Amino acid sequence: MDHAPSPDSGFFDDWAARLRASADRPVVGILLRGSHARRAATAHSDVDVDVLLGGAPYAARRAYLAEHSGRLTHVSVAARDIHSWVTRLGEPADWAFGLPVTAPTRLLWADSYWRHRIDLPVLCQPADEPRLEELIAMLGKVAAARDAEDTLGARLAAADLARLCPSVLRLANPSVRVVSRRSAFAAALDLPVAPAGYREDMLRCLGLLPGSTGQLWAAAARLVTGTLPLIRPYAAEVAGAAGPDLADALLDGRLDRYVAQLGRPGGRTPSASREPAGVPAPRAGQWVTVPVPDAPVTGAHPDLPKSPGGSRRPSRLDPAIAGRLRRTPDGLVAAVVRQHDSGEVLMMAWMDDEALHRTLTTGRATYWSRSRREYWVKGATSGHHQYVRSVALDCDGDAVLVSVDQVGAACHTGQRTCFSDELPVTGEVAP
């Protein structure tokens, strides 16, 4: 990294005075933004300045190359009237992948009337609404480009789809705030509740991994089909953003059918097809279930049981870990869950290889439902999340100990722990 000196306070003060003197309308405040305000600048960082003006709505940009310590520094100036600048703080940032922003800033100068209103240690902008309608529309554009063998069109639409996906997945994830475009990108890629293969598919759609038009379509389709079951518990939020019909389509299976329709070249309908069953709206307190993803078996242990259809459940669990597991005939190991700091035993559930993989890699406790034959993420519907702190395998390999930070009740009855009914012990207790 280049450690050449970056501009000091005198440089910023001089530029604040220069910008005030050269403005063609009254200046009410000047703020420093970006990497210099975050104290994360390098010798090559731009200097980003907001000049806030009084009067009628006005916006303009100017760029300068200023010399400092024998080096040229790019100064980028955004001039905007104060009222529209304040309004923009109430709107999502277009670079933040739909995530909320808390970006440090530094006041360089302000007049006495506006100082207390704009002297903010951080500039906060809200998260974007869940843009599910646009996400589905972009998948349609990728499908159309695929059918037309339009590689460029597929790449452009897939990139737009990837930028929309985090705004929808945000519904099922813990809140996170970002300070820069780089941090927004990292947070968008690292969402703990996400479809299988999410990170790689995002990178491919964004053009950061190579891929043919067919591979782009497959990645885009996996992002959407994997997102739908994760956000079904949040249909009310979808209704607020896109209207009740799209929310109903999310719940009754029409969206799944539409996405499946897009997967058929030219929109052809197969001669014999089975429509997926409707998905009932989850009730408060229920655990959400996520269908098993249609993905290749890359890390499955050879003695995994077969599902009723005859195929093994897919898993990406590290083979070194999978080889240590001793499973039940159903391919499961017991998962004992405790509070990480107090040691309180909270619940017991079951995991197969893929559930353990998801628990280890997403930071969210994920289990296998024996009755529904589906994965479920604890707290995705009830809000009683389990954030995983550590996982330990027992000496026999037939159980795991999951240490979590439990939010709310662990038991579906509303109790903190599932082990709340003590049984009488009548035997003598050793001294």
Explain what the structure shows.
The chain has helices at about 10-20, 35, 80-90, 115-120, 130-145, 150-170, 180-190, 200-205, 215-230, 235-240, 245-250, 255-260, 320, 355-360, and strands spanning about 25-35, 45-55, 60-70, 70-80, 100-105, 105-110, 120-125, 335-340, 345-350, 365-370, 375, 385-395, 400-405. The longest helix has 19 residues, at about 150-170. It has 3 domains: about 10-125, Beta Polymerase, domain 2 (2-Layer Sandwich); about 130-265, Up-down Bundle (Four Helix Bundle (Hemerythrin (Met), subunit A)), CATH 1.20.120.330; about 320-405, Phosphoribosyl-AMP cyclohydrolase (Ubiquitin-like (UB roll)), CATH 3.10.20. The model is unreliable at about 270-310 (pLDDT under 50). With about 425 residues, it is of the alpha+beta class. The strands form 4 sheets. The chain has a 5-stranded mixed beta sheet with strand order 3-4-2-1-6. A 4-stranded mixed beta sheet has the order 9-8-13-12, covered by helices on one side. It has a two-stranded antiparallel ribbon with strand order 5-7. Homodimer. InterPro entries: Ant(4')-IIb_substrate-bd (IPR040517), NT_sf (IPR043519), PRA-CH (IPR026660), PRib_AMP_CycHydrolase_dom (IPR002496), PRib_AMP_CycHydrolase_sf (IPR038019). GO terms for molecular function: magnesium ion binding; phosphoribosyl-AMP cyclohydrolase activity; phosphoribosyl-ATP diphosphatase activity; zinc ion binding. It is an enzyme of class 3 (hydrolase).
